[in-house]
Design a protein that fits this description.
single chain; mainly alpha; elongated
């Protein structure tokens, strides 16, 4: 796919290259399976061939990616809690879990957002929960922008200075991403463990207080082998 795109852009204006690279980097925060890293590397590869300016490639990737991250943050700030108040949202995160997320972001949000920008897929989720829990804008934007600048700056620099061999450049990034993917899987496993334990704790606390939804009890029954009963 990238090879075809490179061939189709041969002889095209640099403006079109910057537009494609910027849009590709922007989409990641809305649809995480589309990796901004690949578009940053693609733009850097074209810069190495003299078809684009590496500084403008970096700016296109960085500005567009950060802009859509901020967009998801702002939308989550307005609509996040409404979503989590619905039945579907209630299943994704119990209200008690959402409060825990808010406390976590209030204490560690700047560091969590900074680190998340280096981890594929996870980087798209962090601004959403920052917005949903109403974290201050600058507390979210500054670490997000700085980490993104470091990451995409490094990718563009590697791609622009490594030569004109696309396979070699892509293999170099793949080695780094494999490490990051492993870290991401470990992190997601920890989050999944926290989700299950904390959700069970909150639902059982509601049961003890006599204020629990039957669907939540059913969810606990499924994970506990059916031992929990409605009062």
């Amino acid at each position: 796919m990238i090879d075809n795109l490179i061939q189709s852009l041969a002889g095209q204006s640099p403006l079109l290259i910057y537009l494609i690279v910027g849009l590709g980097a922007a989409i990641e925060n809305i649809f995480p399976p589309v990796p901004a890293d690949t578009f940053a590397l693609f733009g850097a590869f074209l810069a190495a061939q003299g078809r684009a300016d590496p500084t403008i490639v970096f700016l296109a990737v960085w500005v567009c990616n950060v802009a859509t991250a901020v967009l998801t943050y702002e939308l989550s700030k307005v609509y996040g809690k409404r979503f989590f108040a619905t039945r579907v949202g209630h299943w994704v995160l119990h209200p008690g879990q959402l409060e825990q997320v808010g406390r976590f972001y209030a204490r560690w949000g700047h560091a969590a957002i900074f680190v998340s920008r280096f981890i594929p897929a996870v980087r798209a989720v962090a601004p959403i929960f920052a917005g949903t829990t109403h974290q201050p804008f600058w507390r979210t934007f500054i670490p997000l922008a700085i980490a993104s600048a470091i990451w995409y700056g490094a990718i563009v620099w590697i791609g622009a200075t490594a030569g004109s061999n696309w396979e070699s450049i892509q293999a170099t990034l793949a080695r780094y991403n494999r490490v990051l993917v492993v870290l991401g899987v470990i992190l997601l496993a920890v989050i999944a463990w926290w989700w299950w334990r904390s959700r069970r704790t909150h639902i059982l606390a509601e049961r003890a207080a006599g204020d629990v939804d039957a669907g939540d009890i059913a969810a606990v029954n499924r994970t506990d082998g059916g031992d929990t009963k409605l009062p």
